[in-house]
Specification:
25 strands, six-stranded mixed β-sheet, about 675 residues, globular, alpha+beta
């Protein structure tokens, strides 16, 4: 959609909204399109495309026929859009409801639904229904989607397109290509699942996203019809939790205290489920532990990240899953290194964003007019910030708007917006005072976010969560019903007592003393910290705090804090939380290590997850990403966990260290009397 088409569609929309009896095609051609050169047939095709575009935005173009002779003549057919067509119903929220809604909108952060949530909030602000509200002090829950595949699956679910992907079955361990009609996407037991119709097996199937072994291909030329009244949460509720199994794992003596805490007593465990190692004992310098797990792929990713410090003795399927990750990571690390080129250089290349389109511009304009009506006199920079654009982009929008209006184009027929003194006022709004209805993505982002807050201490109590959900369901209408195709994880913390201790310290300005297990250093340390705020990734919560030992802001996982209590001292002025939202897992410093990663399409989501400062596309869909790390000690662990989907390209010394670390991990399996998989033996190193 070109910029000129954006302007034309806006004028066509205004004309059709502001006519009672409708406008004939000839009138629209002359007064709106100002078309005098194209043929009648060519104009007719353009007009039909524009009507389809307005319908795609949710505006139903009515056709009014004259009665009597010649009523089917296109020259006498009139067109209009009803005043209430696709307008967001009035939604009035209390401050308590607005607080809950803002938390729900922020849950999605960088995911595809993050921008949809922001758009939905702006529509509520534009309609004047969002009350001023303060977010709870220091609490910012978030949902972490399962990589790039999640983004593509959400798109396919809502657009009703089939998808294709490679999948490793949990029952057989075989990798197969699947073609699926995606009905819904949801989280249960800490895992994301796709539910849909498997065309190959001609039946409904559940697919765990952690078992996808390729990127998702959306078959945009095909469509399907999902089952009526499909609800992904109801489907997942019937899914039984995987049974607890135990693995025999040899752990290096004195290493991995966090893993050791979960070891089971051998006298109380039935090892018939596959942990039996055939009677062989642990290798020298290692302790044999029986470790519980439910999901094989998830546990394999964790064990792969421990490298040579943890060697799986059994069951064989878990051991193979770990070796598969290590082998894929080593093979990727040994592949030829691509040229590192982040051109074009300059500030515009610093942050990776989706290219803005004219469709984005038209959507923004339809939000901008009612927003200005309800927020008269805001500074132009504040308006631009609210809409996530630069001042230059906003001024370009305003220039188009003030030239748009009713067909005759007289001064009183045009939108009248003024910003001469940098404060924006709208004098003539042409009845565009209410934003358009929520899209499916927008309704889904808010309603799924509200659902995820259920169970969060201090938020779920009271009636605000329930009442705002009911109000949004009523406002979203049919689009709200479609939100049942997505269900996110609840952000309830594993340790509510630790969360409340930290929240109270933040509220009262008190220091905390903690004992913390750092897995990359494999050690427990004691810290005194100034707590700044709490945030989550799903149900994993983090405490952002100024650490007096490190003399810097650090992030501590609550489930790795072994002891947490006030130390009786007030916080100092040394640290402050990072500005704005979202809070990052990593606080950049001048002495950070800058690392260039190569990511496969399946691992491309790591660029956003670790806040890549620059990215560049590579052949075959791979991606270069420049990422900052406060310490490179845990980079080998990260590469192993994402076996074969990420590798270090630069600096060369770190890449070599990672390769040696992976080799040592693979060799530890050979030294344990269990040779690595044949794929590793056949691998040729560069």
């Amino acid at each position: 959609m070109s910029a000129s088409r954006t302007e034309r569609l806006l004028n066509l929309l205004i004309a059709l909204l502001n006519t009672t009896y409708g406008l004939r095609r000839g009138e629209l051609r002359r007064k709106v399109y100002h078309d005098t050169t194209s043929s009648e047939a060519a104009f007719g095709r353009m007009f039909e495309r524009d009507k389809d575009e307005l319908r795609r935005f949710g505006f139903e173009v009515e056709t009014v026929m004259d009665k009597g002779w010649g009523s089917d003549d296109p020259a006498t057919t009139r067109y209009r859009i009803g005043k209430e067509s696709n307008r967001l119903p009035d939604v009035s929220l209390t401050p308590e409801e607005s607080t809950v809604l803002m938390l729900a909108a922020q849950l999605w952060e960088q995911a595809a639904l993050g921008s949809a949530a922001r758009n939905a909030v702006r529509k509520l602000q534009a309609a004047g229904g969002l009350a001023d509200a303060e977010l709870p002090a220091g609490v910012q829950p978030r949902i972490r989607p399962a990589g790039q595949g999640f983004e593509d699956l959400v798109t396919a679910v809502h657009a009703q397109h089939p998808v294709a992907f490679a999948y490793r079955a949990g029952s057989t361990g075989r990798e197969e290509q699947r073609t699926v009609e995606p009905w819904g996407l949801g989280s249960r037991f800490g895992q994301w699942y796709l539910i849909g119709y498997d065309r190959g097996r001609k039946d409904k199937r559940f697919f765990r996203l952690s078992r996808f072994t390729s990127a998702v291909t959306v078959l945009e030329q095909e469509t399907f019809t999902p089952p009526p009244a499909f609800n992904v949460r109801d489907q997942l509720a019937a899914l039984p939790e995987l049974p607890v199994r135990h693995a025999a794992v040899d752990v290096a003596a004195g290493a991995l205290p966090g893993l050791r805490r979960h070891a089971a007593d051998p006298d109380t465990v039935d090892t018939d489920g596959g942990a039996d190692d055939g009677g062989a004992g642990p290798r020298g310098g290692y302790d044999r532990l029986l470790l519980p797990y439910r999901d094989e792929e998830t546990f394999a990713a964790e064990l792969a990240a421990y490298g040579a410090k943890a060697v799986v003795a059994g069951p064989a399927q878990l051991r193979d899953a770990v070796l598969r990750r290590l082998d894929a990571a080593a093979e990727f690390a040994a592949a030829p290194v691509p040229a590192v080129d982040f051109a074009p250089a300059g500030p515009q290349a610093v942050k990776r964003t989706r290219k803005r389109t004219s469709e984005d511009q038209l959507k923004r304009m339809l939000q901008l007019i009612p927003f200005l009506v309800h927020n008269q006199g805001l500074h132009i920079s504040e308006v631009a910030d609210r809409f996530g654009v630069t001042r230059k982009v906003l001024e370009e929008d305003l220039q188009i708007l003030i030239c748009s209006g009713l067909p005759e184009g007289y001064p009183d027929d045009l939108l009248d917006i003024r910003w001469d003194d940098d404060h924006v006022f709208i004098i003539q709004d042409l009845d565009l005072t209410r934003p358009v209805r929520f899209t499916v993505d927008e309704a889904c982002a808010l309603l799924t976010g509200l659902e995820a807050l259920n169970g969060l201490p201090g938020i779920a109590e009271g009636g605000a969560l329930e009442s705002v959900t009911l109000k949004l369901m009523a406002a979203a209408g049919e689009e709200g019903l479609k939100a049942a195709a997505l269900s996110g994880p609840e952000v309830t913390p594993q340790d509510s007592a630790a969360l409340e201790t930290a929240r109270e310290a933040i509220r009262s300005g008190s220091q905390l003393h903690l004992q913390y297990l750092a897995p990359q250093r494999d050690a427990v340390s004691e810290r005194d910290v100034d707590p700044l705020r709490l945030y989550s990734l799903d149900s994993t919560w983090y405490l952002e705090a100024y650490c007096h030992s490190a003399r810097a802001v650090r992030n501590f996982r609550l489930d790795r804090i072994q002891d947490l209590r006030p130390n009786g001292r007030p916080v100092t002025a040394a640290g402050a939380p990072a500005d704005g939202f979202p809070v990052k897992l990593f606080t950049p410093n001048d002495d950070d290590a800058v690392v260039v990663l190569e990511l496969t399409p399946r691992g491309a989501g790591l660029a956003d997850e670790y806040y890549a400062e620059r990215t560049a596309p590579l052949p075959k869909g791979n991606l270069l990403a420049e990422v900052r790390f406060g310490s490179t000690d845990w980079v080998p662990m990260l590469m192993a966990r994402h076996g074969g989907d990420a590798r270090v390209v630069a600096p060369a010394g770190l890449a070599a260290d990672v390769a040696r670390w992976l080799d040592a991990a693979l060799e530890s399996y050979g030294a344990a009397g269990n040779p690595p998989a044949p794929a590793h033996q056949r691998r040729q190193r560069g």
